[in-house]
Design goal:
alpha/beta; Rossmann fold; two-stranded parallel sheet; 13 strands; 16% strand
């Protein structure tokens, strides 16, 4: 039995009131799904800029009517402090996922990224503090490591951030520390590495690589690799991002708060190897894909060349243990996208 196994039983025995921001998004909807499966009471907040109602519809249908009745949705924007305050009423714990989460998007529109990721974050911290929330867990990013060459990345060694998005996430970490030091309001930051899984949006110019490539291959087109394919990433299946949030929110060790933690699988996969795995998985049902090769373009501005998490701190302090390495996570992800009509086609 892992600490997460124990926690799931504890939560079912003693349900809590949760607020999940960005609830209609890919990670947010996975968190909502797990919390409802554990018989928790959940409020979701979303402005639907990047989230989708069909994500929540799928979750509520999956968990059944009795559990779905424990969920309520508020439509609002975290850049509006009053919307944050309304969402925090009666919340015991906040899992803050709402953000504009794309490096290229932040380079194209740094003001929008700053408004959502910094101003929105501070609004949520203030609202949660003032509402008597006991703890806020927030999504940070491996992008904060920037040009730090240490691989695998350790939490205490960060370099120069390479994009506005990375800067916004680093500011969040600094604000969280100051708020806890000044006001005693507990928070935990989670530096996500490359999260993937069911309900991740494959559409638009800022789509993440895994859903985008699945959609592209299923559509009969060629995928694009930026660079020669030797760049590496630590790919994290979404259920393990959920695990980290729940462990961070509920730890009884106050010394584990006012901290940031890497959330990954501690394994590095090249972009070329990722492409091959996705193509070969899809080729199981469409053999014509086996010889499909990608296009290559110049590397994008702001992208980190190599990324891999050291997760020792998360394991030791919070009891985290990955449940899905990339092969297992990809198998579930490909199965979901190919079985779900809107998974590979709907915006």
């Amino acid at each position: 039995m892992t600490r997460y196994d124990d926690l799931r039983g504890e939560l079912q025995a003693s349900p809590k009131n949760w607020l999940v921001t960005g609830a209609a998004g890919f990670i947010g909807s996975a968190i909502v799904e797990t919390l409802l499966e554990l018989d928790q009471r959940v409020v979701g907040l979303d402005n639907f800029r990047t989230g989708h109602q069909h994500n929540l519809d799928e979750v509520l249908a999956k968990v059944g009517s009795e559990r779905a009745a424990r969920f309520s949705l508020q439509t609002g924007d975290i850049t509006d402090l009053e919307a944050c305050r309304r969402a925090c009423v009666d919340a015991e714990l906040v899992l803050h996922q709402a953000a504009l989460g794309s490096v290229p998007w932040s380079i194209d529109d740094p003001q929008a990224s700053h408004a959502a990721n910094v101003n929105g974050f501070l609004n949520m911290m203030i609202a949660a503090r003032d509402s008597g929330v006991s703890r806020l867990v927030y999504a940070s990013s491996s992008a904060v490591y920037g040009d730090e060459p240490t691989i695998p990345a350790c939490e205490n060694l960060i370099g120069r951030q390479l994009s506005p998005y990375a800067v916004t996430k680093r500011i969040n970490e600094l604000y969280a520390g100051v708020v806890q030091d000044c006001y005693g309001f507990e928070s935990v930051g989670l530096r996500y590495f490359n999260v993937f899984g069911r309900r991740q949006d494959p559409n638009g110019p800022y789509a993440a690589v895994i859903p985008k490539w699945i959609d592209t291959l299923v559509s009969g087109d060629k995928c694009t690799i930026f660079g020669d394919g030797s760049a590496t990433r630590d790919f994290l299946y979404v259920d393990d991002a959920v695990q980290a949030n729940l462990l961070a929110a509920t730890t009884a060790d106050s010394g584990a708060t006012n901290q940031v933690y890497n959330v990954g699988c501690a394994e590095a996969t090249t972009i070329s190897a990722l492409y091959t795995m996705i193509r070969d998985a899809l080729a199981e049902s469409d053999p014509t894909l086996r010889d499909r090769s990608p296009n290559h373009q110049e590397p994008r501005k702001g992208d980190i060349e190599h990324s891999q998490a050291n997760i020792d701190k998360l394991r030791e302090n919070l009891g985290y243990e990955p449940t899905h390495l990339i092969n297992a996570g990809l198998a579930k992800t490909v199965a979901w996208f190919t079985a779900t009509p809107h998974g590979a086609t709907e915006a």
